[in-house]
Amino acid sequence: MFFSDLGISERYKIGWPVLVILGGIICGLFILFLTFLPTKWGVLGVIGMMVPFIAVLTGDVKRFFLAILVFALPIQLDITIRHSGHLGGAAGFIISLFDITLAILYILWISELVRNKRKINFFPSISLPFFLLIGIATLSMVNASSPKLSLFEIVQVLKMYLGFLYIVNNIKNRKEIQFVIVFLLLGLFLESVLGLAQYKFDRPFVPSILGGPEKLGYIRLGEPLSRISGTWASYNDFAWYLTFMLPISMSLLFSGIKGIYKLMCGLTLVAGIGALICTLSRAGWSSFVIAALIVLLLNFSKTKGKTGLNNFATSIFAILIIISIIGTVNPQFSNIVNRRTFSDDYDAARSRIPQMQVALNIIKTNPFLGVGINNYTEVMQDYDTSDIKLTSITRHQVHNIFLQIAAEMGIMGLVIFIWLILMVYKEGLTYIKSSEGTMSGIVIGIIAGTSAFLIHGLVDAASLGNHLFLIFWFFTGIVIAIRKIESQAKPSITA
């Protein structure tokens, strides 16, 4: 009766029990195999085996994995194959939770494309500079002392572009945009709460299987102070992530959203600012202040007269309330900011200067193709003319993403990267100028967050394959998807 109700013919009634038995045998063998792996991978294997069944039970497999994809953005759960011990970018072929989830979504998407005979839209305004950037990166391998390191990094960047391509082609209406933003903010809120718990109890609170820090960092400001990092391995990267994400919650808080969503944005903003303070990242603080000003400017540049003035006053009042809440919850925050800003930083900021000298030496010697993408730390000692012989003290990348791109891929590589950034701004600002409401608020938050990301990047290190750039590509996909959705909706409005 059951098979008849499903519409399954007599021919397949025998096949189903066979498939069930084979599936059980395969699952049993897989579990047996997991017992020979380290506990970390055994646990992850069991969870991974359960995920497809949970996805089917939700009734919407695609949306389930999309939620995981968004939620996994700040979680660096990965394994590196052929790890080389390289300091800088990718040290091997990296397989992450994001990669696996994206691969599943691509399988679902490709099957849909084949079934419905549809095509992929590559959106040339973004894809053209990207492919030129990848072309320059590939050419830079000619000068690379270790071409395999360049290959590792290029693979990482390509995966990020595939994430952009999926988002921009598969987010098709406002509800799906809202779905993505809710999970982005949920992830941000949980990361912020985790960071505050780390500050309160002075413990990492991150299971090793999530790839987070094994211990917290510390800084001397009269007395040692812990620096929180959430699920990120570095407190600076955690601050960078927060300044990238927080402008979205801030922009939406000042937009027309109501009810539970406004409360969610407010709580996320309070927790996120508190966590940002506890990272003790001056670059993070400065870039967030600038991003907040951009949010205010863009939100109220389109409103005039009494309404605009009232909105601006309300926003300033809301910011003061948020600051008051943070100061009331922990009065030490103001003391922490004061000590971090005006106390001796033991030449941490000054050390950026010799780093930049090394990078400039590389650029002057290799202006066309650089020294090869992801090869900066492999050759930096050959260009160290600093008085302190920096490379004998530290082998980390230059703390400036623009100088690093120019050093590794030449001046043309930097020009193409800036072209890509300008295209993102053009798409975002064009939409903001001609629209209002929640979607406009999201794009304003993304543009402000991207600005904070780039400003922070002037004094911190991140290669093109760094996990933070994954967020950049994800946000770019959302901006282009919103423009696409709104452009498709306009004809129906005017009809």
Q: Secondary-structure map with pairings?
A:
Layout: H1 2-6, H2 15-34, H3 39-58, H4 61-71, E1 78-81, E2 93-96, H5 97-116, H6 124-139, H7 147-170, H8 174-201, E3 217-221, E4 223-227, H9 235-253, H10 260-278, H11 282-300, H12 305-329, H13 332-342, H14 352-365, H15 376-379, H16 401-433, H17 438-456, H18 467-494
Helix pairs in contact: 3-4, 4-5, 4-8, 5-7, 6-7, 6-16, 7-18, 8-9, 8-10, 9-10, 9-11, 9-17, 10-12, 11-17, 14-16, 16-17, 16-18, 17-18
Explain how this protein is built:
This protein is mostly helical. It has one domain. The protein is built from 18 helices and 4 strands. It has helices spanning 2-6, 15-34, 39-58, 61-71, 97-116, 124-139, 147-170, 174-201, 235-253, 260-278, 282-300, 305-329, 332-342, 352-365, 376-379, 401-433, 438-456, 467-494; strands at residues 78-81, 93-96, 217-221, 223-227. A two-stranded antiparallel sheet has the order 1-2. α9 runs antiparallel to α10 (260-278), α9 packs antiparallel against α17 and α10 (260-278) crosses α12 (305-329). The longest helix is centred in the C-terminal third of the chain and has 33 residues, at 401-433. It is globular and about 60 Å long. Mean pLDDT is 83; it is low at 1-9.
